[in-house]
Design brief:
The chain is α/β, with parallel strands linked by helices and about 350 residues long. It has seven helices and 20 strands. The strands form four sheets. Strands 1-5-6-7-10-11-16-12-17 form a nine-stranded mixed beta sheet. About 55% of the residues are buried. Bound molecules: fe (ii) ion. The site of fe (ii) ion has 6 residues, from loops.
Length: about 350
Amino acid sequence: MRPAQLAAAALAVLLLSSCSSLPPSSPAATPPATGGGTASQPATASAPATQADPSGTAVEFAAAGDFGDGQAAAEVLDAMAGSKAQFGLALGDLSYGSPGKESAWCSFVADHLGPDIPLQLLSGNHESDGRNGSIDAFAACLPPRLPGAHGVYGRQWFVDLPQRDPVLRLIMISPGLDFADSGRWDYVPGNEHYDWTATAIDSARDAGIPWVVVASHLPCQTMGRYDCEPGPAVTNLLLDRKVDLVLHGHEHLYQRTHQLSLGPGCPSLLPAHSAAACIADTDSDFVSGSGTVFATVGTGGRPLRDVNASDVEARYFAAYSGKNEDPTHGFLKIRVTGDALRAEFVRAGGGNFADSFTLHRR
Ligand SMILES: [Fe+2]
């Protein structure tokens, strides 16, 4: 390993270890988010406030992944801009461009989203390993702008929204991604990534934050072309903790599950398998604490791919769209108040696919 690589690896370890031990009920004690694995981007010290609801009780954001810089991506970003979302959340796979051209993509985003809607980043596999640019460089030109974020921005971070009297903890993790400076990030019981995730969820519950949403690029259960790339352990952690909603990208399609849960007939969710006992509720009008809804929103602009309706895991899914099924680009708009979490797929181009679901507080 060259000296520069050693230094980068050491810095990554330092950042990770510094954010891996948050006390269960003291999330504010964790360090603020730093930019993309480098210490160059202080998260929030001078971050402008987002367009928070004046009452401080509603959070509204737009989530999608797998953008590129083509016409469809422009339409998705334009639709986000018109949606009055307070911020956008990129679920990974950003430019699909050349390394070194990251700032051009950031300018493309800014041209369409405008100055008032920041796009907040989670890495995908296309920029974790540097193939299509570096998550560090994207994080430098689309920096953290949500006040009070903790962890390593772009890779493993969380933020409470609104910062004061939050109704939502939004947690971003990177299970299964290969990072150029630190290798594959596994999330398995007992390791620091897994423990960081568990503690971030548990401390939100302990703090009385009503809703927990987790985002990670790679899905496990899927009707697309990939296997369970993040591994089943982290998926089962999210189910065990009854995370309300999990957002993914990676598959260039939309797929949204029923509310799934573990229980006596479903001790764990197994990849390439399905069991009726793992389904808690199917009517898209859910009650919090009963399970977890998973939504893959890889419809941010890249050419769509087929969904496989005969996939063994298809029984878990309530709604889906892809190249062979009402192909529609768009994003998931999520509105969170103390009482409800409502999600709606917002069409930006292509077909006429629609989906929406609501979780109510028990
Ligand atoms: Fe992708």
